[in-house]
Design brief:
With 123 residues, this protein is an all-alpha fold. The protein contains 4 helices and no strands. Helix 2 packs across helix 3.
């Protein structure tokens, strides 16, 4: 989707660009197209940095993940960790599905109404 000059010259768009630029710490520029390009570049840089940080954290967590056994080969150990994680994810999906089915059954079988003719409460 291309941004037209008419879009960029609207008051609402300019106010939004100024707000975003201030949030990102980008200096204001009189040309809204230049500000939009600066915002775009700044967000791309932020996304790249956050992805690198996430990957570093993921690698650190993955290396600390206990395998439970050792094959003597780091590559095989890492593959085993991946398979174990995939298995756990699959088990979690099954558990969520089971919980949903239990909830459906309980919504049909649970009846909070009390019939006083069947018994008495207390002594």
């Amino acid at each position: 989707m291309d941004v037209t000059d008419e879009d960029l010259n609207s008051i609402e768009v300019n106010e939004a660009l100024v707000e975003i630029a201030n949030t990102l710490g980008i200096p204001l520029h009189p040309n809204p197209r230049v500000m939009l390009q600066a915002i775009h570049q700044s967000t791309e840089i932020l996304i790249e940095q956050s992805n690198k940080e996430i990957n570093e954290v993921d690698q650190q967590l993955f290396s600390q993940l206990p395998l439970g056994f050792d094959t003597g080969d780091n590559i095989v150990n890492d593959c085993s960790k991946v398979l174990r994680l995939q298995h756990v994810i699959g088990l979690r999906e099954i558990q969520v599905a089971i919980n949903a089915k239990i909830g459906q059954v309980q919504s049909v079988t649970a009846n909070p109404k009390t019939n006083t003719k069947l018994g008495k409460v207390g002594r």
